[in-house]
Amino acid sequence: MNHNDPEFDRMEEALKKALRRQQAPDAFANRVLARVAQQELDRVLTKRESILTFFTRPLTRWATATALATAMIVGGLYYRRAELKAERERAEGEAAKQQLVLALRIAGSKLQLAKSKVKQIDGNENSNRQVKE
Amino acid sequence: MYSEAVREPPMAEPLSAEKSAEIADSDFAEIVHRYEAMVYSIALHFLADSAAAEELAQDVFLQLHANLGQFQSGDHMKFWLRKVTAHRCIDYKRRRVLPQVSLDEAPEAAGPTPTADPLLTRRLRQFVASLPEKPRLVVILRYMEDLSADDIAEVLSMPVATVKSHLQRSLAMLREKMQREKITRAPGEVAQ
User: Fold this and answer.
1) Is the dihedral of CA B35, A31, B69, B12 positive or negative?
2) A→B interface, C-beta within 8 Å
3) What are the tens digits of pLDDT across the range B112-123?
4) Which of B41, B119, B121, B170 could form a disulfide with A18 if both were Cys (CB 3.0 to 4.6 A apart)?
């Protein structure tokens, strides 16, 4: 503030005196430190309490029960699906086995037939040779 | 409510970044002792209520304790304390809606203020307490903390021009009130 008014100067001087710093009340620092200590203690207690009371709060209890039930249902569904899949694979394997056995049986009978045909041809050739001799 | 004037003891050495990060509780007690008069006085002159001023000052130091690691120097901490105190004063006033202090009801000085006219001192404090919030803070920071307009602007997060304008208008208003009551005297004069 630039001015050349002695009255203003006097007022500024008076303001400086009126607004001087005042001593804080006695034991102010002790009260601050006590509040800091109390705040630290409250924080520790709140943290511990929050862990202990986590499962005792109604909302948390409901949330936990719901989560457990959901996990059980989902787990059950997964287990059932896996069981059905295994059952289907077992049935498919059984059918493939049956088909293989049938195929082997057919192949066996065809082989028998071929064998008997060969034997019959061999028999005919032998009898023709004996006739010629 | 008002006792004798105090200046903070000089800092032994500026806080280095490493040191400020390692401030222990004993150091914190020292910091409280160093700045308690500054913080308390800003609140007291603003609120004109010693109990409220102490509560607010304690809250400021609690906030300081929670933020101890962030200061690079003693000046930084001092700036932060002024800023937080000023903003808390405004918040406190708005939240609590303290009764408007009329000039006749404003609290008086409890103890004598040597070297100053007690009546003048009392009336000036009452006038300052009757100013609107921001101009009041500007006047307190200017005449109690001896801050420049630039520094006040930084502390109160407002343009320098606004600070100057608040200061000029507040001084004009105070001068008018003082003239109306004819309590401005030359140094050495004693009120009747």
Assistant:
1) positive
2) 1, 7-8, 10-25, 28-29, 31-33, 35-36, 39
3) 444 567 888 888
4) B121
CA atoms within 13 A on the CB side of B4: 6
Kindly calculate the radius of gyration of chain A based on its CA atoms and give it in whole angstroms.
Answer: 52
Residue B40 identity (one-letter amino acid): Y
Residue of B nearest to A33 (CA): B29
Q: What is the DSSP annotation of B36-70? A: HHHHHHHHHHHH--HHHHHHHHHHHHHHHHHTGGG
Across chain B, what does the average pLDDT equal? Answer: 80
Q: Which of A8, A23, A31 sits opposite B3 (nearest CB)?
A: A23
Instruction: Please give the angle made by the CA atoms of B91, B97 and B102, to the nearest 5 degrees.
Output: 115
- Rounded CA separation A8/B175 (Å): 8
Residues B133 and B158: beta-carbon distance below 8 Å = no
- Most B CBs within 10 Å, among A1, A13, A19, to test the B interface: A19
Helix (H, G, I), strand (E, B) or coil at B178: helix
Question: How many Cβ atoms from other residues are within 10 Å of residue A39's Cβ?
Answer: 13
pTM for the model = 0.62
Q: Do B116 and A24 touch (CB under 8 A)?
A: no
Neighbours of B126 (CB within 10 A): 20
Tell me if residue B5 falls in helix, strand or coil: strand
> Is A32 within the bounds of a domain?
yes
What's the CA gap between B130 and A11, in Å, rounded?
17
As a whole-number percent, the residues of chain A with pLDDT over 70 amount to 95
In a domain, A43, yes or no: yes
Q: Which domains does chain B have, with CATH numbers?
A: 17-181 (1.20.140.160)
CB atoms within 10 A of CB B167: 19
Please give the ipTM for the structure prediction: 0.72
The amino acid at residue B176 is: E
Query: DSSP label at B111?
Result: S
Residue-range definition of the domain harbouring residue A38: 26-56
